[in-house]
Task: inverse folding
């Protein structure tokens, strides 16, 4: 009896599948994603929901952080100032500190997006935010930065796909009785 090998998927060496992201959620540095996958353009799409046990790579959190200014404008949380848009490499300015992107939902054929995020309020409570759906093809768009949003989202989608294909934070469990553990061990005779 022959063993079936995976043709499609993150670890497939033979065929690079086509992944189309539908929904993304990031909670406690762990990715949950709904997506379709195809072996080729002609193959039927298979739908998956995946929750990653590994923590996401910092590149993904950085790519998602670039969506925060769009979340703030689309959800009418902040108004644009001359120094509103941060450079790609720099950290987000302090005015964005209370905000975070927790996910997004793509429209049909990835023609638009709904951003999902949070704002930490002064009392430590959290306000959940969901933007109105923003189409990338809407000629009558009221959002002036649709092109920038689409470009920023494309970079985030690349990182989400990389996470689905195995890119995550390197994690190594320390030995329970290794050199660092020996420092913190207390002899049981001294506890009496």
Result:
């Amino acid at each position: 009896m022959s063993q079936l090998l995976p043709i499609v998927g993150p670890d497939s060496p033979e065929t690079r599948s086509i992944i189309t992201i539908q929904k993304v959620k990031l909670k406690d540095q762990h990715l949950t994603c709904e997506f379709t996958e195809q072996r080729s353009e002609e193959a039927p799409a298979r739908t998956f929901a995946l929750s990653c046990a590994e923590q996401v790579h910092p590149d993904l959190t950085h790519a998602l952080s670039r969506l925060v200014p769009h979340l703030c404008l689309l959800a009418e949380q902040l108004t644009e100032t001359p120094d509103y848009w941060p450079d790609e490499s720099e950290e987000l300015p302090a005015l964005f500190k209370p905000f975070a992107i927790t996910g997004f939902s793509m429209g049909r054929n990835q023609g638009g997006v709904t951003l999902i995020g949070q704002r930490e309020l002064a009392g430590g409570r959290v306000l959940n935010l969901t933007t109105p759906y923003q189409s990338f093809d809407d000629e009558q768009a009221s959002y002036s930065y649709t092109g920038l949003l689409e470009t920023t989202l494309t970079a985030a989608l690349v990182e989400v796909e990389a996470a689905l294909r195995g890119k995550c934070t390197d994690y190594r469990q320390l030995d329970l009785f290794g050199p660092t553990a020996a420092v913190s061990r207390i002899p049981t005779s001294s506890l009496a």
